[in-house]
Specification:
Helix content is 36%, strand content 21%. It contains 13 helices and 12 strands. Its EC number is 2.7.7.7.
Length: 359
């Protein structure tokens, strides 16, 4: 990136999105600890309101644990059709300010506002106005991070949550990164953070002190990324054409299942959900993967790749069942199944939709 051009990147992140939508639509839930998900024994929290987070309730937490931490927790089932509709409203607002929009999920996106379309002079003023527009359009609050690259903008959006914004300028960026714990860095997950801690790397300054040779020895292909972000560097552009590479759905059963008919009913339901997603968006893949998690939490996957994109729901269903049956006979019960379609590409005219080629 030329020294003469400093990008202006905004990362918009909705505040407790799923739970906030539920509280917006049901006044009785406002001000109360709410979890989106299932309270069943095998349920998992998909999202938690800030009132619930005060008790340590977080997404991906088992529902049993969540209720133990917060006995008054109110569970509501997810309404993904509503969340998708609100997400479309958000993108309508974003489009008023820039064409360079890179969604990360239903409730967050990067925006490149280097071109001042609305004449607001600064990215700070642009972010503030976007947040006002979101509140007007949806009745929901959003937080924003503003910086000269995507890495710093995403870090910044967490800094004034909820319903706030924070800017990291070029002058402050490198020093600001140094004082942060590496566990907060985008691209450093819990496993990597634990490994870094064993190596004596706990802050950005610790990471910056390591040579590229040291990082390559311990982190292989990720070394250059870690070397760069420790210095506040990230040259990735906001990519509005970034394509989704897969679509998947999974479910955790209320009890461990051993009957193939019960297990396959779950597989078919997940296959149908993925097929609907692909059809609605006109995106089709060549690879179908089935995942199963057993009672001891051991997880296995089976995949099959076709020579052309799979556009037929029955083909997805049939392949998913075939792949599941490769795991029989079962040595123990199954607690979770999932189906994913990946390897997206445009369908080729005249080619068969499906055959038995297997990876």
């Amino acid at each position: 990136m030329s020294d003469a051009i400093v990008r202006k990147i905004i990362h918009i992140d909705m505040d407790a999105f799923f739970a906030s939508v539920e509280q917006r639509d049901n006044p009785d839930l406002r001000g109360k600890p709410v979890a989106v998900g299932s309270a069943a024994a095998r349920g998992v929290v998909a999202a938690a309101s800030y009132e619930a987070r005060a008790f340590g309730v977080r997404s991906a937490l088992p529902s049993v644990t969540a209720l133990r931490r917060c006995p008054d927790l109110i569970f509501v089932p997810p309404r993904f059709d509503v969340y998708r509709s609100v997400s479309a409203q958000l993108h309508g607002v974003f489009a008023e300010y820039t064409d360079l929009i890179q969604p990360l999920s239903l409730d967050e996106a990067y925006l490149d506002v280097t071109e001042d379309r609305r004449g607001l002079q600064t990215a700070w003023a642009t972010a503030r106005q976007i947040r006002v527009r979101i509140l007007e359009e949806t009745g929901l609050t959003a937080s924003a991070g503003i910086s000269y690259n995507k890495f710093l903008a995403k870090l910044a959006s967490d800094h004034r949550k909820p319903n706030g914004q924070f800017a990291v300028t070029p002058a402050m960026g490198p020093a600001w990164v140094e004082q942060l714990p590496v566990a907060r860095f985008h691209g450093v997950g819990p496993v990597t953070a634990a490994k870094m801690k064993r190596l004596g790397i706990e802050t950005g300054a610790d990471l910056k002190a390591q040579s590229i040779e040291f990082l390559t020895r311990h982190f292989s292909s990720s070394a250059e990324w870690y070397y760069g972000i420790a210095r506040g560097n990230d040259d990735r552009p906001v990519n509005p054409s970034r394509e989704r590479k897969s679509s998947g759905s999974e479910t955790t059963f209320d009890r461990d299942l051993t009957d193939p008919a019960d297990i396959e009913a779950g597989v078919l339901k997940m296959a149908d959900e993925v097929a609907v997603w692909c059809t609605e968006r006109g995106q089709y893949g060549r690879t179908i993967t089935v995942k199963a998690k057993f009672a001891d939490f051991r997880q296995v996957t089976r995949s099959r790749t076709q020579p052309s994109t799979v556009r037929d729901r029955e083909a997805i269903r049939a392949t998913s069942i075939d792949l599941m049956r490769t795991l029989y006979p079962l040595e123990q019960g199954v607690r979770l199944v999932g189906v994913t379609v990946s390897n997206f590409e445009p369908a080729k005219a005249g080619m068969p939709l499906f055959d038995d080629a297997e990876t």
